[in-house]
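Notes from hallway chat w/ T.B., transcribed later so I don't forget. T.B. wanted the structure written out for a chain they're using in a teaching module, and asked if we could keep both sequence and structure tokens in one place. Agreed to drop them here.
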Amino acid sequence: MDKPIYFDYAATAPVRREALEAMIQVLGQFGNPSSRYAYGREAAARVKADRETVAQALDCDPSEVCFTSCGTESDNWALRRGVELNRRKGKHIITTAMEHAAVLETCRDLERQGYEVTRLKPNRAGRITAEQVTAALRPDTALVSMMLVNNETGVVLPVRECVEAVKAVDASVLFHCDAVQGFLKTQPPLGKLGADLVAVSGHKIGAPKGVGALYIKKGVRLRPLLTGGGQEEGLRSGTEATAQIAAFAAAVRANLAETDRLERTCAIKNYTLAKLKEAVPKLEVISPGDAPHICAISLPGYKSEVVVRVLGDRGVCVSSGSACHKGKPSHVFAAMGLPRSWLDGALRLSFSPESTPEEADALVSALKDAAESLFTTLS
């Protein structure tokens, strides 16, 4: 099969050469970082250096970075232990109706345990305001959770403004941010958001799947999610995934070295949107995306899963929303109040600095052909 034309970088990114090389190197240096002989000390030193790299990218102290297996684990840890830490304050949680499933499903589970969850609805453009968040605060609010970049629309939510507003009302409320789609793709660095807990993931930036991190602000004393040998300063026991961590740090360094990566990504996204609007008159733009790498479009009246399959047969990879939907309608687009015909035909496009105009032209051609050849529905 020929190399696919890939526009689903929000789902996952290819493993970068630098990350793969770092991973292979560390796999050959197999020492356990908790061991006291030379192999172990070498591994521990490497993990320490890699933690410093990730902390630099987050703009925080290395002691505030705890490595995890993925963004979902980081979100779960932050939410479950965060509300537990603030249990004396109350059992009320505020989040948005368009969070990733890692947050929404955890909140549903917490509801089954007696918590009350307020889910803020976005406007038609997919936006939430600080005023909405503060209006939802109650004396028993324990935690607020808001993503930084929506993984289906590319909208950047005003997390820093919301943190400041919440803390001005009640400094004891914990603030969690799922920044998986925003890590190294937005400014300012995540450590400047002011949030107490920030989740990130490696495979969105060119590291392999299976590694992420949770930023835990100094002074926030979460109980460990995993207990055992006391690794990660006692916060997450289990032998460190040294190879994945090394690859994560290498991917961070490689991204930071490409100073024009965000401009290149935004340029190819804008080029693609302009070409699509010109070539496919039926197309509607749900969101051009504030973040440089994600936008959302729709072919109203078409079935997005059919369009995705037709494009896939031509070697063009796009999605109908988050990969976690597994073909189900997007809760994000539904929360925005879009017409049913727009919901049916919704597609997410996501880009990288390596995306090319030639690939974009191939996408435009394939989508134009699909719009002209497929039957619409009556929805």
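Follow-up for T.B.: The chain has a mean pLDDT of 95. Might be a good example for the class.
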